[in-house]
Structure formats: C-alpha cells, structure tokens
C-alpha cells in the first residue's frame, strides 16, 4: 500500500523539464511579469529597509 497517492499526469507534466525548457514567444509575457514582480519585491524590500533605518535614526 503506497504512502502517498500517485501524482496525476497533468500535474506531473506541469513540472516536467520539457515544459520549463521551452522558450517560445508565448512565454514572453509571463516572463516579463515575473521580472517586473521581482523588481517590485526588491523595491518593496528596499523601502522597508529604509523605513527601518529611518525609524532607528529618529528614535535615537
């Protein structure tokens, strides 16, 4: 008796290397959103760090 249920073929296909290795024009918008998302996260982290530094300086 298996401990975990078998993974359905659709989910197994989503994580296959063949899917991630494709580099066609259909993936361009998703890649652009990912880059913009990472830029947004970095900008947010920078703003949080600046706010923490400003709070420490103003409270000292």
From TrEMBL:
<feature type="transmembrane region" description="Helical">
    <location>
        <begin position="38"/>
        <end position="58"/>
    </location>
</feature>
<keyword id="KW-0472">Membrane</keyword>
<keyword id="KW-1133">Transmembrane helix</keyword>
<protein>
    <submittedName>
        <fullName>Uncharacterized protein</fullName>
    </submittedName>
</protein>
<keyword id="KW-0812">Transmembrane</keyword>
